[in-house]
Structures are given as structure tokens and as C-alpha cells.
Amino acid sequence: MSKLSHAVGATDVPLIEDTIGVYFDNVCAKYPIHEALVSRHQDDRLTYGELKRRVDAVACSLMRLGLEKGDRVAIWSQNNVEWLLTQYATAKAGLVLVNINPAYRRAELEYAINKVGCRALILSPAFKTSNYIEMVEDLAPELKSAAPGALKAAKLPTLQWVIRMGDARTPGMLNFGELLTPPNLDEKESLAKLGATLKADEPINIQFTSGTTGMPKGATLTHRNILNNGFFVGEAIRLTDRDRICVPVPLYHCFGMVMANLGALTHGAALVYPAEAFDPLAVLQAVSQERCTTLYGVPTMFIGVLDHPEFSTFDVSSLRTGIMAGSPCPIEVMKRVISQLHMNEVTIAYGMTETSPVSTQTGHDDSLDRRVSTVGRVQPHVEIKIVDSDGNTVPCGTPGEFCTRGYSIMRGYWGDIAKTAEAVDGEGWMHTGDLATMDEDGYCNIVGRIKDMVIRGGENVYPREIEEFLYRHPKIKDVQVVGLPDKKYGEELCAWIIPREGETLSEQDVRDFCKGQIAHYKVPRYIKFVDGFPMTVTGKIQKFMIRDQMKEELGLDEARTA
User: Fold this and answer.
1) CATH of the domain at 540
2) What distance in Å separates the CA atoms of residue 460 and residue 456, rounded to the nearest whole number?
3) Quick check: is 191 in a domain?
4) pTM, rounded to two decimals
């Protein structure tokens, strides 16, 4: 009988049982003069000692505002110092940080804040075409006449505090700079007392993941979940206190917040934020000028860096390692990352928000073939198996659903017992919905998805959410959304729309309807008006036929991936 697709991670290095606050204080005491963060676009540099001073100030200030253990604090911003300060300050004050995607628009923001009942929102004023202040004022016009902290908004009933970054003043909002007021002794004592009551398995973070049933679900993660995942991901790439990690990935994702921020913290390494959002030139400048040893990114980012017209003018020889994750990596790209970016030890990681995120990772000493053709082996203190539709573990080499359990599994979806039970079974196995195979040596490969998910440039998009949004259009009778292969983003969205009887509708009408309401990456790139959908005899829509027809029409090929 052939070996079964089941593996258990090493347990020789024990799990961290500290809260993030306790661990953070210990690291800052150990490396007070080590550089902790360089935010290049803000021209700000912090040692671990300085980082602690600022974090403690923000934590005490949040408590001064009347925020209490367990309260939810949302952050809606690109990458910056404030984001990192908020991450650690909320953890120290026992608050639950709610990550809001900077690409979200009004409808998504309203849903997220109300779903988890946020009491405070920390936001950046604007970025590119997103005016965050304007969107909040649209949802809560009561801000303009409210004193800071006294907001009573009809559409956002739990929200009291809105805290904005930057120096300008906005009616009804507090400035982030005011949170940096040094705390007095009593406040410091109160923070320390509170810290002593916190437990590692308490929720500390909510991240929204798009849902197959339409609306995003709030995956709830604990100190223990994310601190350990950050540590073991860092261990896999041999991080030390001499490493400098270039972080172009967004902090609102687990990739930035856990794998980068907590990966750095747990090894006393330095973080380098090249820009607010991904900019290939800024990445090259950061790596070259800061002598970064480590670079994180999704494949599209690495492609953007390698293909930049000025690439050859930069010295990137300081790079040693990094992590590529988010979507499958084309083999040729991986080869270029190793040869042109000097990242001989680069690893591939696989996981999902609900698993803090990483479940499997390649090793720094795995062969090139393993690193380009698999997502690695099971992480420490994690268990994985691949099962058939009846839940039986399949033999090695046979595709089935990837399931995982261990310390990394989320506490559940916030306020949704039913959805949690669908995802995590009675034995603690998270059912990922990904189709995978495992070879006899334990290396896994993701071969498809059971769920109808599209991964566009590292962003997970569930067609059902887009369909439900487009259904709101008065002229749309029915709609089906699928993912199509794309060389740049991996996949792009395509919508087949049946207009209502007697109504005319253009592609532009659909795009205008989406604009400002849903994130740009959720707006379908391809739109086709049709009279009907391909169906089975039982009336089930055959999305694969829509996909195949569009691929043929547009002349699109599937990218060869690892």
C-alpha cells in the first residue's frame, strides 16, 4: 500500500506562549540600539528602544480614550510607521486590531466596521484615487459637527473615535500625533498591569477574507497564532538580528503584518518599508541603499522589480533570501529571482489568512526543482493531510483537499458560528478548499481550487461577492463571474451579464457602477453581454465552459507555474 498524504511538523523548537506585548518588550530590551524600522517614504528611522517608547505612548493613549480590552480598533492605511505602532500598541492594550484593505470603498468599509463593531478607526487621509477621509465623512456626515470621541453615526453605530494621520485637522477627528504624547507613570503602570492579565490564546486581530457566500468573513487570530507563525516563517529563511527585510507587501495582509513585521520582531531583525504601496523603483532603491538581505513579495512584484528599466543600475548583491507567496510562481520567474536578485535561499510559502497564514514552506536548502515545483513541506507544530470528498486521507500523488490543524488555526470567523463550523471541522481541521498533492517526501503542490476563488495579483477574490454586488444594478438580470488567466496578475475577472428585458447596458455603465463602491481589483476586466449561460440538464451553471469559451475568444493561455 502506498504512503498516505499526511505529515506532522517538527516539535523540537517549542511554541512561544508569550503574548505579543510581553515578547515585544523582551526583544526591545535585548536589542535597544538595533535598528527596528526604516520607513523610507516618511524619512523615519527607529531603533527597538525608540519603537518601544512610541508603542507604549500609543497604547497608553488608546487606553486614555476609554478603549478597553477586547474593543475593536480598525486601521485603514497603506504601509507606514503608524501602522506598525498601531499593531503593537493594540496588542499591548489588549485591543483587537481590525485590518481594513486600503482598496476598500464605502460599502466594504461600512460592512467591515459594523460586522465586528469597531469603536475606533485609524486612517490615512488619502492615497492615489482613494480619499479615505471623504469616504468616512460620506458614511458618517455626523462627524463634521461631533467632538472627537463623541461620534454618533446612524450608519456606523459602534464607531466613536476617528483618528487621522498627518498634520491637517479634520472636524470630529483626533490626530494620530496626539497619541504619541509620552505617558505618565500611572499610565505606564496601568498598561503593565493590563499586560499581565492578557493571555496568548486571546483574539488580537481580525482580517477580512472574501467569502464564497458573498460578504467577507472576519478571520479572528490570537497572539499565539500570529506570533508563532511569524517566528517559524522567519526560522525557515534563517533570519537573524543582522538581517534587513525589505517589505513591499501590504501590512493589512498576513504577509506584511505576520510574516514581515512579526518575523522581524521574533529575530531582532530590521524592517525596511520602501514606499506606501508597491513601487518597483522604490524597492530597488531600498534594497541597494539600505543593504537589505531579505525581500518579500508576490510573483507580480518580483516580475515588476526584475523588469524595471533601471534594474541593472542597482546593486542588489546584499540580498540573500526572501519569501514568495500569494499565488503560484512561474518557474522562469523563480529562476530569475535566484540568478538576478542573488536570492539563492528564497523560499515559497503557502497558506491562508485563516491559518495565520503559513502551513507549508520550502527550505532554504531545498533544490531549485523543489522550490519551483512545490509549496514545500509542513511547518513546525502544524499537521497537514490531503483528503477525498468523503474525508479519507488519499495516497501520495493523488489530488484531494488540503486540510491543516495546529496552533495556527484561527479562533473562528467573527460573529459567525455557522461559517466557522463549515471551515473547521470537529477535530480541528481547517478545510482550505484548495486541491493539492503530496509526494512521498512530504512536499506539497497546489493543483487547483475546490472553491470558486480567483487570485488576482495576490488578492483573493470570490466571484460570488462580485456577482452579488452587480445584481444590485437595476439593469442587470443575471451575472456570472469567472477568473481568466493573465500574464501580469495571474488571473483577471470576467463577468458574463444578462441585461433585463428591454434594457441596454454598456461595459462603461458596469464599470461606473463599480467605481468607488468596490475595490479596483474586484472590478471585472472583461465584460460580455449574453442571452444565457451554459447549463447542465439540472440547471447548474457550468462556469468552466464560460471560462473555456472566453479563453478561446481572447486567445489566453494558462501560465506554466510551479
Assistant:
1) 3.30.300.30
2) 7
3) yes
4) 0.87
